[in-house]
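Q: I'm writing a short explainer about Sigma-w pathway protein ysdB for a general audience and would like to include a description of its predicted shape. Could you first generate the structure from this sequence?
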Amino acid sequence: MVWLLRLLLVFLCIFLIFGTIKFLLKPTRKLEAARKHKRFLLLDNDEVIKNFQLTYNGAVFTGEKYLGATKNSIDVVSISLSPEHTTSIQGMAKEDFYFIEKKIHEKYPLAQINWKSPIHEFLYQKK
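A: Of course. Here's the predicted structure. Afterward I'll give you a sentence or two in plain language.
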């Protein structure tokens, strides 16, 4: 009976260690921590069919990647960005959105970035 309790205790310890490691390495936890500290973080999977998320200045954005033909290969040619909550972008300047575009172009240099409303209207408004 004692060996059964010891075996159960070992399995419980392994389960707790595995659960803790899985929780600490969870990407959404990293994204939420970066959002709270108003840092930039880009969470991207190399698979084209998966969207990416990024955070900057406390706002979370979702990017949809679109595959297409380039001069030499098939690559991501278009990215559509939208904020998860439009209220979170309040107070952001044009330079903030240009910074986000620059960071995305570092990963996808051939991609054209399309902002969804209301950011598109803000960036391309006439004076």
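A: For your explainer, you could say: Residues 27-123 form one domain.
Q: Perfect, that's easy to follow.
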